[in-house]
Amino acid sequence: MAGVQLSPADREPAVAGPPERLTGEKTGQDSDKQGVAGMHTPLPERTILNEGCEDEVECYGLKRDTPRTILCYILGVLTAGVFLAAMYWKPNWAAKFMYRQSRLDRADTVLLKDMYKQWFLVKVRISKDKLPKEKRKKKGYQKQGDDFNGNTANETPGMRYIRFQKLKYIWDAEGFNFYKLRGLETGVSCNEIYETFKGFTADEQKSRRDIYGGNEIDIALRPLIVLFFQEALNPFYVFQIYSVCLWIFGYNYVYFSLAIVLMSLISITLTVYSTRKQSVTLRRMVKSTGTTTVWRGDRHFEEIGIKDLVPGDLIELPTRGCMMNCDAVLISGNCIVNESMLTGESVPITKTPLPCPPVGENEQPPMYSPDNQKRHTLFCGTEILQGRSADKQPILAVVVRTGFTTAKGSLVRSILFPKPIDFKLHRDAIRFICILASIAFVGATYVIAIKVSHHAKTHDIILKALDVFTIAVPPALPAALTIGMVYAQRRLKNLKIFCISPQRINLAGMLDVICFDKTGTLTEDHLELLAVSPVKKDSFVMVSDPSKIPFSPFVAAMATCHSLTLIDGELRGDPLDLQMFQSIKWNLNEPKDGERGSFDFFMPTIVSSSEGETKEEVGILKQFPFSSGLQRMSVIAKTASADNYSIFVKGAPETVALMCEPSSVPGDFEEVLKDYTQQGLRVLAIASRELDEKQNYYSAQKLQRHEVESDLQMLGLIIMQNTLKPQTAPVIAKLKKADLRVVMVTGDNKLTAIHMAKKCGMIGPTEAVIEVEATPPVGEQQPTVKWTPVEAHSHHANNSTKKNCRRENGQIPDEVQLTFSGAETAIDINSYHFAMDGKTFAIMVEHFPELMPKIAARGTVFARMSPDQKAQLIEAIQDLDLHVGMCGDGANDCGALKTAHTGISLSEAEASVASPFTSQLQNIECVPLLVKEGRAALVTSFGVFKYMAIYSMIQFTSVIILNSVDGFPSDAMFMYWDIAITTSVALLVARNEAYHAIVKRKPQANLTDPSILFSVFGHILLQILVQVVAYVMLTAQPWFTPLVPKEDSIVNYFNFEATTMFLISSFQYIVVSFLFSKGPPYRKPIYTNILFTIDLIVLLLFTTFLLMVYVPEIYGFFNLKKVPLDFRCMILGLAVAYFLAAFLLENYIAESGWVKRLITCRRCRNITLHKHDQVEQELLADPSWPPLSSRLPARTNGKCMDEASVSPKFAGKTADEGNVETPV
After folding, report:
1. Got the DSSP string for 1160-1217?
2. pTM for this one?
3. Which residues are identified as catalytic?
4. How far apart are CA 249 and CA 247, in angstroms?
5. What per-residue string of b and e applies to 361-395 under the rule 16 or more CB within 10 Å gives b?
6. I need a surface site. Which of 617, 947, 977, 1147 has the fewest CB within 10 A?
7. Tens-place pLDDT, residues 88-119
8. Band (479; pLDDT cuts 50, 70, 90)
9. How far is it, in rounded angstroms, from Cα 720 to Cα 115?
10. Percentage of residues of the chain with pLDDT beyond 70
C-alpha cells in the first residue's frame, strides 16, 4: 500500500475468495457494485470508503504485531522519545513498524488516508447490536460475519465498525467494505416514511440508540494537560527541547536556555488557551438541551429528552415554535422556519408535508432525499417560528438524521476537521528549512574538520557540530510566519469582519478573481414593484398601480401565490412576495382551528380585499413551495364566491410560459420579456387554471404538483426593480483598477444579470458581451454551442416597448415608462466577456470540457446558476492557477463560499459556519478591506520569513568564524541576539496596518520567485562578506592578539574575535529587520508602527552605545573585551556601509526586472507560464475565436462605421432554454 510497503512475509495468508471478488469481474448480485465506472478492484486487505464521494478515504487492514511494538518502544526509550514522536507525527510510519497487513474482515486496526493525503490509525470495534430492519433488508447489508460467499467466517460474532471523524462506519461482509451508517436519508421511499414509522416502543428506541448513538453534537473538551503535550509534540518545539538540552548540558548557558524555555511555554500556553477557548465557544454554540414529544404508537405520547431521539422516531412539533435538534421530514401540518443558522438568510421559509403520491403496481415509489425534498425537511439548528396544524391534526415529523449526521452536525464537522489549506508559503518555508539544514550539515562538517585539526576532544567536537544545527535552522520560523495573520485577524475584527480560519487571511492577499452573488450582495435585498402587465386581448397592458385593477384571476394570483405568513401579528416572508402582496393592498388572515369564515371548509390562509364595493375573499388550501430547480411555486386556492378550486403559478417567465397553452401567451411575449430583462428588471410571470368541479375539498388536498401545473392560462407579468447598493459601483471600480477580475454568479435571469454587470461597472461601456448558448445532444444530433454578441440596446427598442405594452387608452403612464440607454460608444471586440446561464454551463462542463478554461478565463456573467454550479465555476477558475474569492449573502452560496480560497458571507452574525469570513457590513465594502489586510499579512509573513532566514545565517556565520579560532559567543550574547532583538522584532513587525489603497501589482506569493531568492541569497552573501571583512580588519590591527583556547573550557568567549563578531552582527540584525519591514504599497510606512519604530531606535542606540562607550559592568555582563576607539569607529563605519549596500540590494537590485531575466532563461520562463496566461495567449493568438454567429459594429476612429452594418436583432430565446431543471 502507498506509504506502507510491507513484505509478503509481513502479511497474513490470504483466504481464497471467489475469483470475481479478487479480479473485479461482475457476477450476479455484484454487478451493481463492480460495474460502476471508476470503482476500484476490491482486495482482501484494501478498500475505499465513500467511493465516488468528495470525502473518499483509502482503507488498509492491519493487525498489531506485538514483537514489533515492543521493539519500537525500546527504540523510543533509547532515542529519548524521538522515535515514538515520529510515530505520532506519521501514523503511516507507525503502521509500518508496529503492525502487519491483514485482511479487512480480520483486521483489528485500519489505516485511513483521506483525499488530502492525511493518515489516521483507527481501532476496529465489535458490537453485539444489530442493524435496524430497514437497513438489514437493503441490499448490501447481510448478516455480520459472513465471508465473500455469505458463509459464516471464523471470527468474533457481532457488528464490526469503526469511528472516523465523528461518523460510524459499519462492516458489510457482502460488500467487503465499511459503509457509513446513515439514517433515513437514503434507501427509504416516501411511502415508507408514512407507512413504516408510526412510533417506536421504548425498547425499540433503545436498541436503535445503541446503534446510532445519542442525538447530540458533543464537542469533547480535551484536558488542558493533553492539549499542552499535544502542542509540545510539534516537531519545532521538540527541536527546541533538543536545542535547550544541548545549551544547558553542553555549554552551561542557563540564562539563555531558560529564556527560550519561558518563551516557548508562553507560546504553547497561548496556543492551548486559544484552542480551548474556541472549543468551549463551539461547544456552547452547538450544545442543546430540552425535551420533545414522541409517539409510541396508538396515539400514545411520551415526553423524552432530545438526546434520546433516533432515526425513525415520530415526533410532535409545537405550534408555538421551537428549535430543531435533529433532521426530520414533515408529514403533517405546516411550519414556518428560519434557516439563517445554516444559510445566513433570515427570510422565513414555509415547510409543507412530504408528498406521497399513489404508486402503481409496476411503478417504483419515489425515494426520499433531504437534498431533493428540502421544502419538506426540517433541518437541525433551524428555528421553527410557527407551526400550523390542519383540521386539528397534530404537527408530526419523522426523524431522519441525528447527531453529527444532521445538517448542523455536518457543518460542525467541517469546523472540527477542516480542509487543509495548501498554502504555498508554508510548503516553501519547509523546503527552505531543508536548505538551511543542508547548509548546517556543511557547516557541521567544517566544524568537525577544524576541531579535529586543532586536536579537540571528542566531546567538544560532537557538541560544536550539533550546535551548528540549532543555529542554522530557526525553530521559531513557523510560529513567526503566523504573527502577521494574528494581527490581521484582530484588525479585521475591529472592521466587523470575523474570521474562523486565520490561515486564509494570507490567501486573501493573493486573490486574482472575486465572484459576487447579485441579489442581496451587489443589489438591495428588497425589490421594488415597478409595474404589472396583465394580459388583455393578446397583448400586455401596463398598470403602474396594481391596487386599481378590478378583481380578476390576475389579482387573485397576486393575492395568493406567495409564502407569506403572520408571525406575532406581523406579515413575514420573502421580500419579493411582500412587495407583490402589499401592492394590491389586501389583507391576510390565518384562521384558528375550526374557523371557516365565508368558506364551507377550513382554509389555512384567507386573503381579502380592503377596498371596493364588494369584499372579495380567497382561501389558500395548499401550497407547493418555490423550488430553485423548478424556478416556480404554485398554490391551490378558492374564491369564496366561486364553485371550484383554481391553481395559481408564479415563477420565471420562460418556465411558466412552457406550462401555458400557447394560445394564451401573447405573440410578443419573448420580445417584451427581453426588453424588460435587458434593462435589469426582475420579471415574474403568473398563470392560472380552474380545476374540475369534481375536485372537492378533500381530493384537492391530495393533488400533487405535476397534476396541476399544466394547461395554464397566462395572466400577465410582474415587473420589479432591484437597485444596486450605493457601495457596489465604487467598490467594483476600485477592484478593477487594482487589476482584480470580478465575476457575477447569480440565480437571476441572464439579460438582467448582464444589465446589472454593466450598470455596476463589471463590464465597461466599450467592452463586448458574447452570449453563450449550448444545446444538449438529442438522438443522433451532436451538442452545439452558439456564440452570439449581445446588442447594445438602443432607443429604437423603446418604441417596441411602448407599442407592445399599452394601456387601454393607448398611453403609458410617465412614472413607468421604460427607457433604454443608448449605445453611442463603439464596442471593442478584442475586449469581450462571456455570459451564459446554468443550463449552458452544465452542457459545457459535460460535453465541451476543452472549452471550459476559455470560459473560466473570460466569463463574467453566469446566470440561473444552481448552488452546485456556483461551486463548480469556482473550481474551474481555480484550475487556471488563480486564487478565487467569493462574496455572497449565504443564502445559496454555502458551497461556493467553502470552495473559494476566500469566502465572505454577508451576515449580521459574528461568525457563520458557512464561510471562513463573515462581514457585518451588509455590502461589498468588506471585500477591498479584506484584500488589503490579506496583502499586508502576506507581505508581513514574507518579511518575517526573510528576516528569520537571514538572522539564522548571520548567527551561523558568526559561530563558524569563531569556531575556526576555537571561540564561541557567550550566554549573554545569545540572549541579546535572540531575545532582545529577534523576539521583539518578530512580535512587533506585524503591527503595521494595511495601506489605504489597492495597487495593481500583487505582492509576492512564491518564495521561489527570482526576486525573493536573489534577495535572500544576496543578503546571505553580503552579511558573510561583512563579517569576514570585520574579522580581517581585526586581525590586521597591531594590538590584536589571537585567542589562546583554555584547555579546561569548552567555550572561549572573552576574546577580541567574539567581541568583534558580536558587535558587527548586532548591527546586521537591526539593519535587516528594518529593511524587511516593508511599507507602501501594501502596508503603511514603518513610522506608523510606533512600537516597532521605538524598538528599532532603542536597539540601534543601545548597540551603538555598547560599541562606542566602554562601561565595565555592561562589558562584563556580555563578556566583551575592550578595543581601541579607532577600531570601534571602523566597526561603526562598516555597519553603515553594510546598511547602504543592503538597502541598495533590497530596494533597487532585487526588485529590478533584469534580475528575473538574468536568473531565469527564456525557455524556463515559457515553461513556468501560469495556466491562465497560457489561455490568454491562446485567445489573443486566435482572433477568429469565438466563431460569432453575428457581427459587432467595427471601430473606426472610435465611432461605428455604419449603424446599418449592425446585425439585426437575433431571435429571442425559447422558453425551453430558460428552464433550469437540467441536472448537473
Report:
1. S-HHHHHHT--HHHHHHHHHHH-TT-S-BSSPPPPEETTEES-GGGSPPPPPPPPGGG
2. 0.75
3. 517
4. 6
5. eeeeebebebeebbbbbbbbbbbbbbbbbbeeebb
6. 1147
7. 889 999 999 999 999 998 999 999 998 888 89
8. low
9. 46
10. 84
